[in-house]
Amino acid sequence: MTERNDASRVSRPSRPRLRTAAFALPLLVLMALLTGARCYPPGTRVVIFMQGIYTSYDVTGTQPNGIEPHRFDTLKAAFVARGYEASSLLDFSYAGGTVDAAGGWRPAPYECALTDRTPADNLVPLEQMLADLRKKKPGAHFTLVGHSLGGYLAFLEGAREAARPEADMLGIDVVVTLDAPIKGISPDKKMIIDLLACDKTYLAGADIVAAKLDPATPDIRRDQSARLAAQGIRLATLGNTFDCLYNTGHCVPGGPFVDDGDTQFLSGQASVSLTYYIESPAFLSHDAIVADPAAVRDAVAFVGAP
Question: pTM here?
Fold first, then answer.
């Protein structure tokens, strides 16, 4: 289906545009039910929130993002309003964590530099987290909600899950990405990354740039998305087309800059792909989606009941 170029919709941050079809928002739940979703007993869903590159975590939780006291506060509140227990809304830690005797998750603090690793290294603590939680709660099944690099990693982990033998599956059945560079990012975005205060190895960024430069990446993502769908793992790719990380020209005069806006979406491949145009100050544009009312509403609707 051809995407509509409806300027009246694009100009309003609270009204998202569906890239997959011109359905009304209430049909998101129906769409979720019609895309191979698995059935589980109520109260067994666990939502895991994954931060992006150069973020940190301490005893109080995720770092502020200029919009919320802690990243994902708004999303968590929306899930609680949907009927989720706060104990089922968990923070991923790049440093790992522990599961107590009652099955409660305790994420370990980490500094920003720890996020700057290869995907293989960053996915180790995520897979250990899922395995440890399943040992205490065998019936648990997991939704991964990732922002930026967290969304990129969430997608890659969903692809890994879809390729596992059934006996080795970790229980992932939903992946939601927010402003994630799923198809890679151009080298010119290093100037934006360099504005973030942290000691850098550029290992995470090098992998994402390599994905952008590899002509096989679109076919790889198409194949991975098909495998997710075949295994009943629902995928939603949500992104802000104003995000200055992808559309640097929105915030930095001059250029030239490569428009990487489309890297956030797998239109026609994900269960749902949604675009938003959320105008915000330049330094907030990459985080605006995690607290945007429309994006939060759509993410929670797509994940569904606890």
Answer: 0.89
